[in-house]
Amino acid sequence: MHVIASFEHSIYLELAITAVEEAGILKENIYAVPLQERPGKPGMFDSIHGSDGISLFDAGAALATAFTVIGSTYGFVLKGGAILWGLIGAAAGFTIGVIIDILHKKKKGVKHPAPGKKTEVVVLVNCTKEEAKYIQTMFWEHMALGVAVCE
């Protein structure tokens, strides 16, 4: 049997491995492998195939809405009309919002993955069927992110 668990790189990982060793599992049957971080920086913009959870669209959409309302309102008295000034307001608001988001993200130094999050460690334990249930329970008690039991 194999028990596989994923942990954050923390003291809980050490406590879980120690608990498994105290349960009688030999060190030769416990494998802990840290995952490597992403090499290089991901792109600034998301693709259609994936997103990193950081959006540059939010402030742009909010400011585009606000500037559209303002442009349309004043467009009734300005030359060109409400529709033209609403569209100009939308374009200007969106552009300003995206620029604000880009500057804010650069100033904050947003890193990938989320700030403070380190890579995970995968732990694999070779054991008997009787020991697997106990090891699985130990991993859950020590804050495992996920646990799987394989035959």
Describe, in plain words, how this protein is organized in 3D.
A four-stranded antiparallel beta sheet has the order 2-3-1-4, with helices on one face. The model has no long low-confidence stretch (mean pLDDT 85). The longest helix has 27 residues, at 82-108. It has 151 residues and is α+β, with helices and mostly antiparallel strands. It has four helices and four strands. Helix content is 46%, strand content 16%. Keywords: Membrane, Transmembrane, Transmembrane helix. The chain crosses the membrane at residues 54-77, 83-103.
**First CA to last CA: what distance?**
4 Å
Any low-confidence stretches, pLDDT <50, length ≥5?
Answer: none
Indicate the overall shape. rod-shaped
**N-to-C series of helices and strands:** EHEHHEHE
- Strand arrangement, largest sheet? 2-3-1-4
Q: Whole-number average pLDDT?
A: 85
Q: Determine the structural class based on helices, strands and strand pairing.
A: alpha+beta
Provide the helix percentage. Answer: 40-55%
The strand count comes to: 4
Radius of gyration: 26 Å
Largest sheet: 4 strands, antiparallel
Keywords: Membrane, Transmembrane, Transmembrane helix
Transmembrane segments: 54-77, 83-103
Task: Write the SSE topology.
Elements: E1 2-8, H1 11-22, E2 30-34, H2 58-75, H3 82-108, E3 120-126, H4 129-141, E4 146-150
Antiparallel strand pairs: 1-3, 1-4, 2-3
Helix pairs in contact: 2-3
Transmembrane segments: 54-77, 83-103
Keywords: Membrane, Transmembrane, Transmembrane helix
